[in-house]
Specification:
Layout (H helix, E strand, L loop, with lengths): L1 H9 L5 H22 L10 E2 L6 H7 L1 E2 L12 H33 L4 H12 L6 H12 L5 H8 L16 H26 L3 H9 L4 H25 L7 H6 L8 H4 L2 H9 L5 H29 L7
Antiparallel strand pairs: 1-2
Helix pairs in contact: 4-8, 4-10, 4-13, 5-8, 10-14
Length: about 325
């Protein structure tokens, strides 16, 4: 019987339905070829001493091959190592809080009795996602301004001394400020993803739990969180893939590029930007992007491997 089925599949002819599917997928295939695969050719720029001489291909073939020389500036100074450390530590916090807080808020909103209030809260939390860091930095400046900032006005009203929040004396506060700003801006997007997953959970689970006398807390811990576990793990693995990348707007625009704050605000992206903005070296910038991409791919593979050993069903692939 199996041989008969195999023979039918093998002898199946190309049909009009197959042509329709190919034509439907063709725009997507072309898009990926142009914007995802063709640019991979540019990775070779990271191994060349880029000297512009005519068009792109003429410049590419005439530029000298220098192997890994462009990568040396990433690890040449103690500042680079400090930037790498800051990048990893901040991203570890972002990954953890980027799962815990959105899941908590999504569960809370899903349990509101008023649907209108739930929609208002959801919209209010999602709105910062569309705001640029430049605009967000001025909102923060309204709170932390040295002379007219709301925080300093409150401190002086209580008999304290105003703090120069963008100076060296406030360096210890900025890790908390940066984490708080990142949560404020990104939580809404993650919350919507988890809220959609909660909406897709079969209501009969909760009805059976109510009949058995389960409290709200028991429904959350025994039904909601276990059924959200897979999407939580996938979101965490995807976030781990960006552990060597940071949003330069958060670390460059929000602290107003203040050099006194560099010990806690300089990440790998900020270091690369400051190192290359006057050098105009395309090879070094390509090397930095190449390193971050490869390192991110490796961390995704490692994280997925660990998850697959613990719970194979929750693994990303």
């Amino acid at each position: 019987m199996a041989k008969v089925k195999a023979a039918r599949v093998k002898g199946k002819k190309f049909t009009f339905d197959d042509l329709e599917l190919i034509l439907l997928s063709l725009p997507t295939v072309i898009w990926y070829l142009i914007f995802s695969f063709l640019p991979l050719f540019g990775l070779l720029i990271a191994f060349k001493q880029w000297r512009v001489s005519g068009g792109f291909f003429e410049t590419f073939f005439s530029s000298e091959w220098i192997s890994f020389t462009n990568f040396e500036f990433l690890f040449a100074t103690s500042t680079a190592m400090e930037s790498l450390r800051n990048t990893i530590l901040y991203n570890v916090l972002f990954v953890i809080l980027g799962v815990v807080i959105p899941v908590t808020l999504a569960i809370m909103i899903s349990n509101l009795y008023s649907q209108k209030l739930g929609k208002v809260c959801q919209t209010a939390m999602f709105l910062p996602h569309f705001m640029s860091w430049v605009v967000a930095s001025y909102f923060l400046f309204a709170f932390l301004s040295g002379d007219k900032g709301l925080v300093n006005n409150m401190i002086e009203a209580m008999g304290g001394t105003a703090i120069n929040w963008y100076g060296e004396e406030a360096v210890g506060w900025w890790p908390f400020i940066i984490v708080l700003m990142n949560i404020w801006k990104t939580t809404g997007y993650g919350m919507v993803v988890y809220l959609a997953s909660i909406t897709g959970i079969d209501a009969t689970y909760y009805e059976a739990a109510v009949i058995d006398g389960a409290t709200k807390w028991q429904q959350v811990t025994r039904i909601t969180i276990p059924l959200l576990k897979q999407i939580m793990v996938i979101m965490a693995i995807m976030a781990v893939g960006k552990i060597f990348n940071t949003d330069i707007g958060l670390f460059q625009q929000v602290p107003k590029s203040t050099s006194q704050l560099y010990p806690v605000t300089q990440t790998l992206d900020v270091y690369i930007y400051n190192a290359l903005r006057t050098m105009n070296n395309i090879g070094m910038s390509s090397a930095a992007a190449f390193f971050q991409s490869v390192a991110g791919c490796i961390t995704i593979l490692i994280a997925n491997l660990i998850v697959s050993k613990i719970d194979e069903e929750s693994a990303f692939f």
